[in-house]
Design goal:
Helices cover 80% and strands 0% of the residues. By secondary structure, it is mainly α. The chain is elongated.
Amino acid sequence: MRPELTRALLALSAVGAAIVAAVAAGAAGEWAAAGAAIVAASSASMLAATLVRSRASVRIRPDLGRWLDERAAMTGESRDVLADRALAMQRDRLGETEAER
């Protein structure tokens, strides 16, 4: 699974956990804890949305877009998979470590 998707899924699971905690705290009459859990849910959902949007906001050059379209048509793979693979290969050639990515 791609790292950005993993981070987005973890953030979404944090949203769910915070909502459950808010409901449980509210049912127990602990309104301060419920409020804190709602704030945590809001923060986690904003993080998840940012992670998902950040990938879509990267612009690519038109010639690279055409190359991705042609390659996707030839192989049947999605543009995202091809772009991720090409980027990983370039980073590998540059000698980047996983921590630098």
